[in-house]
Amino acid sequence: MANILLSSERNRYGQDRPHSPLNAPELKDIISHINEEHIDELLGFLIAFTPISTAELDNIEVQLTTVYAEGMELQVQPKNVESQSVNAQNHTDHSQSFFIAFPAAITHPDELQVQYIALKQRADKKLGKKTIKLIKQTFTVENRYKVSENMLRLELSMPELSNNDPLNKQPSSVPINDAGYAYLFDLADNSAANNSATTDIEDNARSARAHRYYTLRKAWQTPTGIQAWVDVFLHGDTLGGSWAQSLQVGETIVTKREFPEKVDHLRDGQALLIADETSMPTVARLLELWENPTPPLVVCVTHNAADQRYFDNVKMRSDIDRSIDNSIDSNNERTIKNTVKDNFTVLPIVIDQQCSGQHLASLIDSTVGNYLTDQPLKIDKVWGALEASTVKALRPMLRERLDLSRAEVVIKVYWRQD
User: pTM for this structure?
Assistant: First the structure.
């Protein structure tokens, strides 16, 4: 590891001039959330904007400590310091602070998200990664129907926009071959787009969190444009579920942001995928676009055993499938492909409504442990998405059980228990 961390005094990289602190009570929760859920992004900022290299990431810990009007301060320390029994002063002695400037200064925490996203976009561009897009897309509802006991599928369409059209300043680019791609849907905008009367759902959407992320389950090109599936799990009386069930054929729905999931680490090694009812569509698309020659192990958590059938019709694309496809003629392709076993294994977990985050994390951990006791597998990579408290408890359990690094265990928060 390069000698970027000083052993005797605290080096404040980028702190060559004073900055204006923001004094707002909500900042504490924002900083805590970023440190829990967005460590990978903080590491990306370090690589893109400081002297720290990719090779050093496995040897350091990072956390956001302060948000200023002009930027934010990240504190970095070697991992071996954190594991030692030393006092806080010694931790500080071995740490280094890095100031990351915002593209534009802010005056209130409400402006932080815009500047944070702008930083991420800049960092991802420098690192050659896919990034968040702040772009409006409009889809038309073509159909909706159940694909499992409680999973509602929205069939959507979008006309092809010509790049030569002078009125089309930002043509749509729906990702057909990207797994784990999410859209931020505006739950209140479909009424405005269709000039329909205001409903209770729309009033509720406007009054609180009027947006929801949903994974692009599948998309494909047709002669008239793009067709797509978005699957919405119906968890009783929720804002997103009520919105999805209220949609009618012919209505338009609007998205405001696009977000690519971090799944590149799954391209090699033995993967473990963990899904609950909100993330099953993401895992299903991952399986259909699977590029890793080793089939994954899948843990699927539902409240209703009937919803476990969601994966019954998912066909995994693998190197094995492709090699067989290339050796057969077109007349026999459908017959022979249907004989190829979709050889990912699903470990079903059915829970009751009272299952807490800590208990579910322990249940997932023990289910994986019991399976690995009987099977000769060494898990190399993990991707999952669950409720916030479950994620917080599960991450350290799996890292310890599987002896994996932070970068190898990617478990995202897809929702929070209100």
Answer: 0.76
